[in-house]
Amino acid sequence: MAKLTHRMLPRYGNWGGPGWSGGQWQDNYENTDWSVPARDSLDALFKLHDKAYQQVIEKLPEDEREPKFNEADKVLSESANKLSSNPSKWEDPPKTVSWWYAWGYRKLVILIFGIRGRT
């Protein structure tokens, strides 16, 4: 069962949010259904981020993972920053969340994962 604190945080689409992958709560990536589609351009970035984390977990011992997780976080932040600040202009604009929610979630991702990617 995903951590309770993760469930208290907002999620985005099928892939955005701590412990949220493939449209369901996950404790690890072993049971993730990678065929679940992203719902928009931002969600697609979250799916790529989850795949990057999975690859790190599969390839590296636990004590060597943090730098690679930070690299994945930096890529997510930089990629989200490249999306237009107007979600309706994304290649795949949001269809299941409001423009404001997509705008705000993108901003939080840029901030939070940008900080994590610098450590």
What is the fold's blueprint, element by element?
Blueprint: H1 4-8, E1 20-21, E2 24-25, H2 41-59, H3 66-82, H4 99-116
Antiparallel strand pairs: 1-2
Write up what this structure looks like:
- The protein has 119 residues and is mostly helical.
- It has a domain at 52-119.
- It is 50% helix and 3% strand.
- Strands 1-2 form a two-stranded antiparallel ribbon.
- A hairpin with a 2-residue loop joins β1 and β2.
- It is globular.
Which blocks of ≥5 consecutive residues have pLDDT under 50? none
Roughly how much helix do the residues carry, as a percent range?
40-55%
User: For the report, how would you describe the main beta sheet?
Assistant: 2 strands, antiparallel
Strand arrangement in the largest pleated sheet: 1-2
In terms of DSSP E residues, the strand content is: under 5%
What would you report as the Rg, rounded to the nearest angstrom?
Answer: 14 Å
Distance between the termini: 28 Å
| Average pLDDT metric | 91
* β-strand number: 2
Number of helices: 4
* Broad shape: globular
Structural class: mainly alpha
